User: What shape does this take?
Amino acid sequence: MSKIRKAVFPAAGLGTRFLPATKVVPKEMLPIVDMPQIQLAVQEALDAGIEEIILITGRGKVSMVDHFDVAYELEDHLRKRGQEELLSIVEEISKKTRVVSIRQKHPLGLGHAVLCAKSAVGDEPFAVILSDDIIKSDRPAIGQMAEIYDAEGGAVISVMQVPPDQISKYGAAIPAEGSSPVPRLTPLSGMVEKPPASEAPSNLAIIGRYVFPPEIFGCLENVAPDARGEIQLTDGIRELLKSKAVYGYEFEGKRYDAGDKLGFLQATVEFALARNDIGPLFREFLRSLEV
Ligand code: UTP
Assistant: This one.
């Protein structure tokens, strides 16, 4: 059993890259085929043995919380019509998830969103999952990271190698001197946001999965807001580095940036192709396209 029992899902952002779809629909509810992105992310946490889901929500995000609640009328309707398969899909979602939701009143940044979970997390290590980073993997990415945390302590941040001309789109990890004997693990000495390729400290891009010790909260409380008035998670991690080891972990799996239109489409196509029900017909359809 891992020490990681709780996962925080920051989901209070405005999703401006997906306007107008996200004017009233939370970006986390946009489906990959028929699965809301937040459900894919929550499933990853459950598959890793995480028991408590902490959703950080904002204005207009109620549907996301409702999604994990019992839908009595819908369930009753499906039961009466004998639609047992759909019924169990719908029932499962609320049955297996223990959800706490916390409102971030103003979108004051990812660091602030994580800080909102302080009292719900308490004095124990926890995971942070950004649901728009979808990771397809045989072993849940956050579970891989929880194992590393259990063995190494400190903080574990997911990283992925990207081509040099892509690193300027990400936070880049700064490797510390020396290496780790653990495969895929790099001790870090810091990170920089969106560096130009010529100044990038590595080609390790930071992705939306983290395992933190509870000390991260004190660090975030000490961080000054940036020029836009936001508290950045990376500043909190830099603060944490003063007292704890921080590791970059190259997870096994394929990541899609579903917060971006192209990444969203790529995830949709690959997830659809992998499905037993619609996969074969969808493949045939794609082959028939003149592209
Ligand atoms: P993004 O930078 O992707 O922002 O936030 P966004 O609002 O979701 O989307 P765009 O860029 O406007 O299209 C990264 C993650 O941090 C959460 C978001 O919900 C997302 O999961 N976040 C960001 C918060 O919860 N609160 C904030 O104040 C900012």
Q: What stands out?
A: The mean pLDDT is 95. The radius of gyration is 20 Å. The first helix runs from residue 37 to 47. The pocket of uridine 5'-triphosphate is lined by residues 10-18, 27, 56, 104, 107-110, 112-113, 130, 132, 259 (CB under 6 Å).
